[in-house]
Amino acid sequence: MISSENDQVQGISILSRIIQNDLKRNVKQYGLNENNYFFIFFLQDHPGATQDELRQTMFLDHSTITRAVAKLTTLGYIERRPDEKDKRMGHLYLTDQGKALQHPLYEATKHAEEMAFGNLTLEERQHIQALLLKSAISHEREKEKNGSKYN
C-alpha cells in the first residue's frame, strides 16, 4: 500500500498549483491565462512558427492549440499569415501589441518562479528544470509511440 508520504507526485502537483494560480492572477489583466501566455514567448523566439510547432513544443493537443491561437488572434496579440506555397498552412507572428507583452509576462513568470522555487539555489533550479523537461519529453515520445490513453 502506498501512503501519502511516498507520493512523489504530490510535491509536483502542489508546486504546479502555486505556479498556475500565481500566473493566472498576473496575466488575467491581459486576457491571458496560465497556459496561453507562453505562446507569446515562443513566437518571440520563433517568428513564423506553425501551430504544429507549437503543439510539439508545448505538449498540447491540436484542438487546444487551435483555441488558444484563435483567442490570441482575437485579442490582437498574434496574427496568422498564409504560407506562400501551401495556403492551408499558416505561420504565426506577434503583433506590436503582442511584442509589448514581453516585459510584463517576463515579470509575471519570474514572480511565479520565485513563489515556487525562491528557496532554491540557481543550480538547484536549473537541475529541476532539466529533470522536468527530460521527463516531459520522454512522456510525449512514449505517448506518440504507443498512442497512449494517458495524456
UniProtKB/TrEMBL annotation:
SUPFAM superfamilies: Winged helix' DNA-binding domain. One of its GO terms (molecular function) is DNA binding. Residues 5-137 form the HTH marR-type domain. Keywords: DNA-binding, Transcription, Transcription regulation. It comes from the Bacteria. Gene3D superfamilies: Winged helix-like DNA-binding domain superfamily/Winged helix DNA-binding domain (1.10.10.10). SMART domains: HTH_MARR (SM00347). This is MarR family transcriptional regulator. The lineage of its organism: Bacteria, Bacillati, Bacillota, Bacilli, Lactobacillales.
